[in-house]
Amino acid sequence: MKNRFTIFDLIYFIGEKLSKPNDSGVHRLDGDTILAVTFYNMLLGALVCVNKFYPLKGSPNLIVLILIIGLPYGMSWLVYHKLGRQNRVMAHYRGTAYDSTFVICLMLFVIILVPWLFPLFVII
């Protein structure tokens, strides 16, 4: 069966490329964190859109907050670490055009900014 790689695999690859330690030995980000940030950005962008038309009242339940925080990390750990997809993703994207510093910086910009541009067009 042929492996199919998704945009989430590319995002994970970018995070893993950024996780190389700097001179002091401190890791910056990793694939799990980048996937979680992408999920949070999409979720918050959607909440901004929904809140414009249907204002959200009250405070969220603690269980809902734990699920929102833990779900992206748990799913990422399960898919990439437990099921062994990390090695296949890294081998697939290594040496391609996505492996350059410019593309990685551009993708990070898109991951962080695009979910926030959508609500601006919906609200206007």
Shape: globular
Total of domains: 1
The SS-based structural class is mainly alpha
Low-confidence stretches: none
Radius of gyration: 17 Å
Describe the main β-sheet briefly: none
List how many beta strands DSSP finds.
0
The ordered string of helix (H) and strand (E) elements is HHHHH
Task: Write out key terms for the chains shown.
124 residues; mainly alpha
Task: Describe the protein.
By secondary structure, this protein is mainly α. 71% of the residues lie in helices and 0% in strands.
Strand and helix layout:
Blueprint: H1 7-18, H2 31-53, H3 62-82, H4 85-93, H5 101-123
Helix pairs in contact: 1-2, 1-4, 1-5, 2-3, 2-5
Summarize the structure.
The protein has 124 residues and is mostly helical. It has 5 helices and no strands.
